[in-house]
User: Fold this.
Amino acid sequence: MRKRLTAALGAVTLMLTAGFLPVATAPAQAKAPGKDQVSIVLENVAPSVLQAKHKTLTIKGKIVNAGDTALTGVQVQAQYGTRFTTRAQLADFASGAGANPATAALDVSRTFDLPANGTQPFTLKGDATRLAAIAPSDLSVFPLAVTAADAEGPFEAEARTFVNYVPKEAKKTIKPTKVAFVWPLIEAPHRTTDTEFTDDGLAASLDPDDTGNGRLDALLDAVDTGSASTSGAVTLAIDPSLVTDVDAMQRPYQVVERTDSPEDTGGTSAKAEEKPSNGDAKNWLSRLRAYVDEEGHQFFLTPYADVDSVSLVNKKMAQGGVNLLKAAYADKTLATDILDANETYGKLTWPGNGTINQATIDRLYRLGTRQFLLTSDQLQPVGGLSRTPSAAHNVETSSGKRPLALAFDETIQQVVSGNTRAEGGALAARQRYLAETAMITAEAPSDGRTLLVVPDRRWNPSPDFAKFLLGHTDARSAWLQPTTLGAIAQPKNRTDERQLVTYPDRDAEFSRTYLDRVKTMYNKAAAFGNLFTEPDGALLRAPMRATSNSWRGAVRRESAYDFLDAAEDSVNAEVGKINLASEEVKQLAGSSGMLRFTAVNELTEGQVTIKIEIATDPKGRLVFPDSENPDVFTATRPIDAGQKDTFMVAVKLPTGGSIDNKIPVRVRILNEAGQEINSSTIDVSTTGVSSVGVFITIGSLALLVIGVGFRGMRARRRRKEEEGRDDGAAAG
Assistant:
């Protein structure tokens, strides 16, 4: 499993409390009793980037005492240290590993009393020229720490961050790193079928007031209001299913929420709620259309529902009769039709977590992919390269073709994807991002390289942080210069060698058990779609949604199964609208007759053509005299929406049939290709007998009559003999 940076994930609060160590803090030393609840939250560092003209560095924050004991004489001080020379040093400092290199006092310490369960804001001001004097001509990144200790001496808490220094002649001595962003507009599926939402969470994500979350609104707002100079540096990654979901919400829609039934009954119960058309959805989609329509704005689409391509390939669901991957790529056109725009990078694929195996590279190449967006943890530099390599490099298919791979920086992904909505989180991520990008340039300041920044698919930044990132892709940062994704891919920018290392994420894939259920749902949905004169693949999108990257990984497994349960229910309900009107026991009076079967189309629109197949189980217990095969009755009929059709089926008992026998009859509804839609078993109760049975019965009755006659004649002779003996005895 590839290395994940605890540093970025925890850099959210920059605080230290007992038993909890977020990133960008150092572990606390032994504390006196009652003093293990102190933490520091940093709120601002200004300026965030030092220049030679700056004389003062100001740090604002607060000390938090979460304990029940008041503390007195707590001293707070800012410290700095020797500049970093490698990104590894920077990462160690952020994670709290090793000794704290920030040892020189930046200011005079402040002393505060902390009430129990209280906070104390502080402002520290230090001499910024001390840092500038360390390396006045070099782009530099310095460690910065704020420490708190009580008057008695024991260390209390520490918060770590960074500060950059840009030399006066930076534009003459530094060749900026060219940076581009992939901006994810991707959401976990909220619909099982095209007509049913599982919840109303998407409405909250589109809410511009941020009352429910506002995630998607904030992401689009950041690029929509960005400056013209940086818009070219952003490429939107859009999930087509998100576009279709938002489009559906422009009209009244239905939310079907399922809950577990009481244990004694089992199963689930469903509650449907009708929702009016959503104004936020209409506004968001209108803004997205306007954005992609503007010249210079770039985007690419994931396969429908952002399906987990590696899982589908590895579990044999991307080939042959169950090619869910191919179907998902074909359905990208649903989004281009709604957006009325074509992809800028239509041959680019971003696999889940940015990791891939050789089989998936080969399969996606055959589906048209020519560029892969991968994590730098899997596309690593060759040899002993001492600096961060440029993003683009070729990988190979098994057939020898060489599609392009674009490596996004894994460390930076973890930094920017942290919880910037938490207290102190935006500052922590901001300073770390600036430090990481400055260090990349400082590793080789005279070399021009490229950098690709790709936040996590589920990225939920604070609105201000999202805008900050785009605001620092231009020349104001001195060490960064905005560029396009297409420019990064150009041959002239493939300046460094990378190699694809072993695929690390097999444990994150969907299990065989899970995908077996998806496969069954796929087959049922495919058969249903083929009922129509114009094949309809709408129901196939349910298994696509069930295999979204949003459900990938152990932490989302329970949610994945919940969604799969709901999707199966929705698909079964839709397919079940083509059914038999009744499954009651049918009577056959006599040895032959007509049985009535009625098929129903309960859909609100659409004519279907069904094939009905009727046979006993096992075959041969009834004969169908009007069929080519007397063991099976078949007929094909079109049925309009809301209509039904009755099949009168001639049957008779075969030779040797029995009396008063219940015969199970299997009735299957198929499409014209012979794929099963649904089936039922109905008992046929027979009260007649066959011709041979009649002869046997008559013969048996005749033997019975003859036998009874002989016994009667013998009885009469015995009575006459007894009467004769009685008469003789009387005469004597």
Remarks:
- The first helix runs from residue 6 to 10.
- The two ends are 124 Å apart (CA to CA).
